[in-house]
Amino acid sequence: MSVAGQLLLRAMAWLLIGLFLLPVVLGLGGTLLPALGLAPTLAPGNGFAQILSDPRFVPALICSLSTGLISTFLVLGMTLLTLVCVHGTRWWTWLGAAMPPILAVPHAAIAIGLIFLLSPSGALVRLVSPELTGWLRPPTDWVVPDAGGWTLIIGLVIKETPFLLLAAAAQLPALNVDASLRIGRTLGYAPARCWSRLILPRLYPRIRLTLIIILAFNLTVVDMAVLLGPGNPPTLAVLLMSLVNDPGSRAAASAGAVLLAMLVVICFLGMWMLECLMAFIAKRRRQSGVRGHGITLFRRLGMSAMVLILLTSLSSLALLLVWSFTRRWRFPDAWPSQWTLTNWSSRADVLLQPAWTTLTIAVTTLLLALLSAIAWLELERRSLVPRLDGIWFVPLLIPQVSLLFGWQAVTLWAGIDGQWWTVVFTHWLYTLPYVILILAVPWRELAPEWGYAAQALGAGYWRVLWCIRLPMLRRPLCQASAVAIAVSVAQYLPTLLMGAGRHPTLATELVTSFGGVDRRMIAALAVLQSLLPLLAFVFALIYPRWRQLRVARQKNPSSNRAPVR
């Protein structure tokens, strides 16, 4: 390639980086200026003084801190416990197959299903009523969501534990777990000691970034907090969303978003200090030489915890499907007495319009993310750009309210708010990191000799890319596509703020409709929102195998012929 061509490719690569970081820089600036009273479109005033004087701020801050930290520690604990207790057993393969469908379901759909399961008129109460409880009406002793935020914590643990578990499972082959366990057992250590002293210290640095992303999400989530979180006080992110819609409180909302970002940074620092403390304690314990005993109790706890998560998730999804076809379901009946299809047919126009908008935005976002990731990784392979893995995860580490409040203000100032492509661009911002994360390792590990052999036979660069590299990476490309669809479908806050209500999707309609009393409509929306990413994951699972079988049959056509008798 000529020098001019290389310079052009480098310029395009840095343009991609600029487009990716542009909303981050402008968004943070657009949030900070109103907080300091420097926004020209707002009345002068100190947003920090306004938000700190709000009596709801401190309770909301405590609520966000408690739910976010507790859920993150539970996610980490259950993930490590599952690895120690289930890995190497017959349940491990089954568990790996059951996790991706749960990951595919959006957060809002899981939250709605959890409410249908745990509410006073939910499925659990119906199963034991009135035989065991004597209740002929829904009890009034508890409310879901509860005031303590435990329903939100349960929802976050159910949704995020499979994410961290799959991230950890993907790193195990590089750690040579079986060999480490054999060496530890040879030295007389119990299996739990082998994990805690030989494997987990090497595994944790590999999943640290994933855990940090989970912590940032749990502290600042909006859609699940609206559905499952307490109402008085709400979480800080929900409180800021109520303030940003009031022009007189815009500066206070921006200041609160800055404080929320500072809270996340403080939690990151606290997490690092806790890591140092645990590393010091682990080092002292390793030097003690204690071998330990069996882990029968812990094994049962780990397996029970994951079975409980799986059953709760699958039950929540099943309840969404049941409610979407229910006509009559009186309490305390354990099963609907009448079924109907009118929940879908009579609301087809209400359901299809947001479904079509969701699908078009998701597919467009997917194509843009795939093209961007392939272009960057290919330029990186040709040594035209450096490896910048950390940059791609910046939007995932910043609270969405802290970033999108300012980005929305910038789009309003530029006159591009509410545009369809603005929504797509913001979805691309949150989808591209996951696509690069999935494609980076297989793209870098693909042997270049295949391309060299094709070029020696006269194939050009584009033909090698299209006919050699991309087909050989078909499986990770399909996996990245499924994840991109799932991430885009689940985006609530970017669609709500960037779309200005002009492009309703299934995510925004689901959260908006939650305040109504029609469970059938809510269930139908949740089923549709879950169906799109589930179909994408099914396609990602089936298509590579189908292509492999098709190629094998083309190479050996005699295998398809009927035997001669």
TrEMBL record:
Family annotation (CDD domains): TM_PBP2
Domain named ABC transmembrane type-1: residues: 61-270, 355-543
CC annotations in GO: plasma membrane
UniProt-listed Gene3D superfamilies: MetI-like (1.10.3720.10)
Residue intervals passing through the bilayer: 12-37, 57-86, 149-175, 209-231, 251-280, 301-325, 355-379, 391-414, 420-441, 477-501, 521-543
Keyword Transferase assigned: no
Cross-referenced InterPro entries: MetI-like, MetI-like_sf
Localization of this protein: Cell membrane
GO BP: any one term: transmembrane transport
Topology in the lipid bilayer: Multi-pass membrane protein
Keywords, alphabetical: Cell membrane, Membrane, Transmembrane, Transmembrane helix, Transport
Main subcellular localisation: membrane
Name this polypeptide is given: Inner membrane ABC transporter permease protein YnjC
Biological source species: Granulosicoccus antarcticus IMCC3135
